[in-house]
Write a structure and sequence with these properties.
Length: 276
């Protein structure tokens, strides 16, 4: 006889399976379109079986734009930003959570308030700064503005405040440790799972960014993956098969990344949930 707990478990697994299918279907549809042409992609009822043109369209992607160079550029930009988020945001969060200095609360309030400002409003002043530095059409124009974020600082500040006790700080200072040693040898190892998740989120955000790279990058050899996909389209028509083939190829590195670090990411999120 099925108990109440078994019924709950059955519905739970059913909902999880439906949610998984709903999340995977856009990726599957992208692959289906990437193996066909525009006419097939717009046919009603739509085709749900992959065609046989994927390798042909993938070859066109690599010959139309410098796609491999674009993937490498995206890896450099997203990887540097991911590391910057993990280190710089945790460092700023440690300062706001555990150090006492004049104006700490006011500065933290300003950081939090910047999250209410739409990203588009910062495009013009940010471009003026990048242009004055001579960084237009360079990768540092993408890397430097994204090395830290207000959300990352806020999240690490909350996590460090709940994880590192004042007693540990006092004991470390009695043992002769300075502020940097306390952060690097005590605080950062304890919050490393949360910093890893934050870095991964920063990596994905930088990988998928389109607006800012589209503004500052001019040369094809400087394109990131998202700008290379845009370059596959001309001004009048869009070859859906070619565009979706490039999108699918640009998604593969993220899928590979999540295959290797997905378990660790979930563990870091759950660690932060229990401690926060």
């Amino acid at each position: 006889m099925m108990t109440k707990a078994d019924r709950v478990r059955w519905w739970t697994y059913l909902l999880l399976a439906l949610a998984t299918l709903a999340c995977l279907f856009p990726l599957y549809w992208m692959f289906v379109v990437a193996t066909t042409d525009t006419a097939t992609a717009t046919r009603l009822p739509p085709e749900i079986v992959p065609g046989g043109n994927f390798f042909h369209l993938a070859g066109l992607v690599f010959t139309t734009v410098p796609f491999i160079r674009s993937i490498v550029n995206s890896l450099v930009v997203a990887g540097t930003i991911g590391v910057g988020h993990a280190v710089l945001c945790s460092l700023a969060g440690f300062a706001f959570a555990k150090l006492r200095f004049p104006g700490r609360n006011a500065l933290f309030l300003i950081v939090v308030l910047t999250m209410t400002v739409p990203t588009q409003l910062a495009v013009i002043p940010q471009y003026m700064i990048i242009s004055s530095l001579g960084w237009v059409d360079t990768l540092q124009a993408l890397i430097v503005p994204g090395l830290a974020s207000a959300f990352g600082i806020f999240w690490m500040r909350q996590h460090l405040g709940a994880t590192i006790s004042d007693e540990i700080m006092h004991a470390a200072r009695i043992d002769g440790a300075n502020t940097w040693q306390i952060y690097w040898r005590i605080a950062f190892p304890l919050v490393r799972p949360a910093a890893f998740v934050l870095g991964l989120l920063g990596f994905v955000t930088a990988w998928n960014d389109f607006l800012w790279p589209f503004i500052v990058l001019k040369s094809p050899e400087m394109y990131t993956a998202q700008i290379a996909i845009k370059a596959l389209q001309n001004s009048f028509t869009v070859d859906l098969g070619l565009a979706m083939s490039g999108s699918f190829l640009a998604t593969l590195p993220l899928l590979v990344l999540f295959v290797f670090v997905g378990r660790r990411m979930v563990a870091g999120i759950m660690d932060g949930a229990f401690k926060g």
